[in-house]
Amino acid sequence: MSDQNIPAVADETTPPPPSDVPQASNNTLRSSALPLIIALLALGLTIGLAVTAYFTWHQVQQLAGEQVGIESGVSERIQPMRTSLDAVNRALEQEKQRLEARIAQLGEDQQSVGRRLNVLAALMGRSERGWTLAEVEYLLRIANQRLQLQRDLNTARQALEAADGRLRELADPHYLNVREQIAQDLDAIGAVPVVDIEGLSAKLSAALQNIDGLPVAGTHYEPVAHTEAAGLDAETTAKSIDELTALVWSSLSELFRLREHDKPVGPMLPPDREYFLRENLRLQLAAASLALLRNDEAQYSAALQTAVQWLGSYFDNAGTGVQKLTAELEQLAQVNISPALPDVSASLRLLRQQIQLSEQQALLPVVPEKAPVEEQKTDTRVDKSQAAGQAQ
């Protein structure tokens, strides 16, 4: 048993076999060289970084020097251009100020010219609106003149309708009252009875042609028939003194005869006076025709009444021609050739009042327009001072 335990002790104190010693030393060497390698690598890396940083810094310095040189060269080259550009800017600023002053002056001149043109247009009526209103005024004046002076209803109606059409084309609500008055005037003209001037003139012309065929009273003598009491013939011879006395009395009674009439008897007219009577009647009818054309109611009625009186006094009323002409002239005398005409001047007065009011309204804003011009001058001066301060 002791022998067996001794080898075991010997095994613990004896060195390891030779094959295990190199392996342990290699492990020791490896563990001690690793930090060295790492240190060497770090040193090399540091040296490389230092060299790289040096070269980089050197390159940066070189580039900075080149940049400074370039900037200085560029500055030297730009300085003349900058100087000339400043001079150009100053010249442009002065030119700008001069142009602004000129534009402001032109604006004032334009406003002044505009005001003058507006005044001239309002006073002279040169605008299209002014011409239209002037045309309407002319048409209304024509309607009044033709109606009042010449009693021409047709022309007056046409003039009023034309004036209303021009106002309708103008389409201005300020003149609606004028159009309403024109409508009332047209209704008033339509209510006037129309006189057939042509028909009446034709009837008077026909009466003038029939005058020569009218019989004149007193131009033909008709002896009175003998009465039985007159007794004897003019060729009867007296056989006794009684018959002689009766014959003398019969002859004397034929020379002087008294008749009773309900009207005074006029003398028999000679042929020359018959001619003048017909001519006078013809003149009366011609005067009636002239008065008809002139719308002279008094002269027309007086001439026809005179003609009727002459027909009854100097012409034979037993004839059908005289009776027919008398009845016709009496009928013509009853025609009112000059009916009452309406007053159509109200539309003209309204138009003139509205035109005058429009002209006054157009002239009122002329004076207050100077205030904005002065404000514009002040604003322009402020802008100029601000621009001069920025330039400095």
Features of this protein?
12 helices; mainly alpha; about 400 residues; disordered C terminus
In short:
With 392 residues, this protein is an all-alpha fold. The chain contains twelve helices and no strands. Among the domains are: 32-69; 123-192 and 341-391, Four Helix Bundle (Hemerythrin (Met), subunit A) (Up-down Bundle), CATH 1.20.120; 197-219 and 269-333.
Query: Rg, please?
Result: 70 Å
Number of helices: 12
Do you know the CATH topology of the domain at 123-192 and 341-391?
Answer: Four Helix Bundle (Hemerythrin (Met), subunit A)
| CATH architectural category of the domain at 123-192 and 341-391 | Up-down Bundle
Shape: rod-shaped
What is the tally of beta strands?
0
SSE arrangement:
Layout: H1 2-13, H2 21-124, H3 128-148, H4 153-170, H5 176-190, H6 197-209, H7 241-255, H8 271-293, H9 297-314, H10 320-333, H11 346-363, H12 370-391
Helix pairs in contact: 2-12, 3-4, 3-11, 4-5, 5-11, 6-8, 8-9, 9-10
Tell me what the structure shows.
With 392 residues, the protein is mainly α. Among the domains are: 32-69; 123-192 and 341-391, Four Helix Bundle (Hemerythrin (Met), subunit A); 197-219 and 269-333. It is built from 12 helices and no strands. The longest helix is centred in the N-terminal third of the chain and has 104 residues, at 21-124. Mean pLDDT is 75; it is low at 1-14, 223-234, 366-380 and 384-392.
